[in-house]
Design a protein that fits this description.
Helix content of chain A: 25-40%
Protein name (chain B): Inositol phosphatase Siw14p
Strand content of chain B: 5-15%
Strand content of chain A: 5-15%
Structural class of chain B: alpha/beta
Oligomer: heterodimer
Number of strands of chain B: 5
Order of helices and strands of chain A: EEHEHEHEHHH
Strand order of the largest sheet of chain A: 1-2-5-3-4
Radius of gyration of chain A: 18 Å
Shape of chain B: globular
Organism (chain B): [Candida] jaroonii
CATH superfamily of chain A: Protein tyrosine phosphatase superfamily
CATH topology of chain A: Protein-Tyrosine Phosphatase, Chain A
CATH class of chain A: Alpha Beta
Protein name (chain A): Tyrosine-protein phosphatase Oca1p
Shape of chain A: globular
Largest sheet of chain B: 5 strands, mixed
CATH architecture of chain A: Alpha-Beta Complex
Largest sheet of chain A: 5 strands, mixed
Number of strands of chain A: 5
Number of helices of chain A: 6
Distance between the termini of chain B: 90 Å
CATH architecture of the domain at 105-257 in chain B: Alpha-Beta Complex
Chain lengths: 187, 266
C-alpha cells in the first residue's frame, strides 16, 4: 500500500567537509583523511595535489577518487630519513622525519601544485607539524604557531614533541624560488 | 519478637507490625524556595514575582525582554578599551624592527578572501597589512580606538561596524536582522578581502561564520565542530542553537538576487 506523497521542494545537498578541514592560505587547505561522504565537497576545491602524511596507505576509495580526478597524491609521510625510500620501519606515533617536512614544504612552495590539500588520518599532529613549519617559514612568531596547532588537536591537546619539532625546524633549509612561490609566501 | 539483637537478621523475618514504615517528608513551608532550586531561571523569575516576600510586598517585576537593556557582558566578550590602550602603547614603545609576524588570536581564513579573528592589536598590524584588506567588519558596539582608526586610514581600509550583543543566557540573543545585514556586507565581493572580528573571535564571529557555512550548505555537525574549535574552551550551546535556528530566507533572497551564491572556492 503506497501512500501518495507530494514533494514540494528538492532535496538539499548537504556538503560535508572532511574532519578538521580549514583553509590555510589561498588554495591551500588542511584536513583529516577524506572519506566517501566528503567527495562533493572535495570536488568544489578542484584539488591538484594532496600531501598524504600518514604512515599507512589511505583507504582504497580515497586512492580511487584521486586517480579518477587526476589528483596527484604525494606519499610524503612514508619517507624514511635513513635510507630515503618508502620504508616500512616508521611507526604511526613517530614525529615527522626531516625529509617528510622538507618534501612537503617544497611541494607547498611551488605554485604549479595548487590547489593543495595537506592531510593525515585525523588532521591533527602530522598535518599540524607541516602547517606549523610553514607558518615559521612565513615568519610567524612561535606562540601564534602553537595557538593555531592546538586549535586542531582536540580535547587531548597538543603534543610537546610536535611543538619542539616545529620550533627546531630550520627555516633556511627550504629554498624559495621567487618565480615559483605563491605570492603570500614571498617576504 | 520485639528485640533484634542478631545483626544478621533478615528483613523477611522482621515483624511488620513493629516497624513504622510511614514515609516521612520534610515540612512543606519551604515549598517555594525548594521549587526555585529545581526550576529554570525563567520559571524562577515568575515564581519570585508571583509570591509576596515576608513583608507582604510583591517583588518589582523584572524586565525580561527589555529593548537594549544594560546587561553584563561575559568577561570574554567585553571590550576593554583601557587595557587595549595600555597594551598598544607599550607595544609601540618597545617595538623592534624585523619582528616576526603576529596574527591576531583565533585568526583563520574562512573562504576565499574572507578572514576571521579576534580584536586586532597594534602588534598585529604588520601581519594585517599583508592581507591587503579592503574592509573590516567589527561586531562589537564599542568605538574603534584611535590607533586603529589611524591604521585603517593609512591602509585605506573601510570599517563596517555592527555592534551586536553576544548570545547570553537567558535573555540576550543576537538579532537576526543584524546578522542578515552583516552577511550582506560579508558576501559582497566589492568588500573583499574582508576581516570579520569581535572581541575574542569566538562567539559573535563564530555565529556569523556558522551561518555563512549554512549558506555554503555545510552539514550542521561540521559547522558546530568548527564553531567549537574556535570558541574553545567557552563554547556556548546557545550560539549553536542560534546558528541552527537562524532564518535564512531573507539573506538567501538577497544573495540570489545579487548572484552572490554559491560561494565557490577560488
Amino acid at each position: 500500500m503506497s501512500e501518495e506523497v507530494t514533494i514540494n521542494h528538492p532535496p538539499k545537498l548537504r556538503i560535508i567537509p572532511p574532519l578538521n578541514f580549514c583553509p590555510v592560505e589561498h588554495q591551500l587547505y588542511r584536513s583529516g583523511q577524506p572519506t566517501i561522504i566528503n567527495q562533493s565537497f572535495l570536488k568544489d576545491l578542484n584539488l591538484k595535489t594532496i600531501i598524504w602524511l600518514a604512515t599507512e596507505e589511505p583507504q582504497e576509495e580515497f586512492l580511487d577518487y584521486c586517480s579518477i580526478n587526476n589528483i596527484n597524491l604525494e606519499f610524503v609521510g612514508m619517507m624514511d630519513d635513513y635510507n630515503y625510500n618508502y620504508g616500512s620501519n616508521i611507526n604511526p606515533w613517530d614525529t615527522l622525519s626531516d625529509s617528510t617536512i622538507q618534501k612537503s614544504l617544497e611541494i607547498i612552495s611551488n605554485k604549479e601544485n595548487y590547489p593543495i590539500l595537506v592531510c593525515c588520518g585525523m588532521g591533527r599532529h602530522r598535518t599540524g607539524t607541516i602547517i606549523g613549519c610553514l607558518r615559521r617559514l612565513q615568519n610567524w612568531n612561535l606562540a601564534s604557531v602553537s595557538e593555531e596547532y592546538r586549535r586542531f588537536t582536540g580535547a587531548k591537546g597538543g603534543r610537546i614533541q610536535v611543538e619542539l619539532l616545529i620550533e627546531s625546524f630550520d627555516i633556511n633549509s627550504i629554498e624559495i624560488d621567487p618565480n615559483m612561490t605563491p605570492d603570500w609566501l614571498l617576504k | 519478637m520485639t528485640e533484634f539483637e542478631d545483626p544478621f537478621q533478615m528483613d523477611e523475618e522482621l515483624d511488620e507490625r513493629d516497624l513504622n514504615i510511614t514515609p516521612q517528608y520534610p515540612p512543606i513551608n519551604n515549598f517555594i524556595e525548594d521549587q526555585i532550586n529545581i526550576r529554570s531561571r525563567i520559571d524562577e523569575l515568575d515564581l519570585t514575582n508571583a509570591f509576596p516576600d515576608k513583608n507582604g510586598h510583591l517583588k518589582e517585576n523584572l524586565k525580561i525582554q527589555g529593548e537594549q537593556e544594560e546587561y553584563e557582558e561575559d568577561l570574554d566578550d567585553k571590550f576593554d578599551a583601557k587595557v587595549h590602550e595600555v597594551m598598544n602603547n607599550e607595544y609601540t614603545k618597545f617595538k623592534k624592527n624585523n619582528e616576526p609576524l603576529t596574527p591576531p588570536e583565533n585568526f583563520a581564513p574562512v573562504v576565499n578572501k574572507i578572514y576571521r579573528s579576534s580584536f586586532p592589536q597594534a602588534n598585529n598590524f604588520d601581519f594585517l597589512k599583508r592581507l591587503k584588506l579592503k574592509s573590516i567588519l567589527c561586531l562589537i558596539p564599542d568605538e574603534y580606538p584611535d590607533l586603529h582608526k589611524e591604521f585603517l586610514e593609512k591602509e585605506n581600509i573601510k570599517l563596517f561596524q555592527m555592534g551586536m550583543s553576544g548570545n547570553k543566557e537567558p535573555f540576550v540573543v543576537i538579532s537576526h536582522e543584524l546578522i542578515t545585514e552583516a552577511l550582506k556586507v560579508v558576501l559582497n565581493p566589492e568588500n573583499h578581502p574582508i576581516l570579520i572580528h569581535c572581541n575574542r573571535g569566538k562567539h559573535r564571529t563564530g555565529c556569523l561564520i556558522g551561518i555563512l557555512r549554512r549558506l555554503q550548505n555545510w552539514s550542521l555537525t561540521i559547522i558546530f565542530d568548527e564553531y567549537r574549535k574556535f570558541a574553545a574552551p567557552k563554547e556556548r550551546p546557545m550560539d549553536q542553537q542560534f546558528i541552527e535556528l537562524y532564518n535564512e530566507d531573507s539573506i538567501l533572497k538577497f544573495a540570489n538576487d545579487n548572484k552572490l551564491l554559491p560561494l565557490s572556492w577560488d
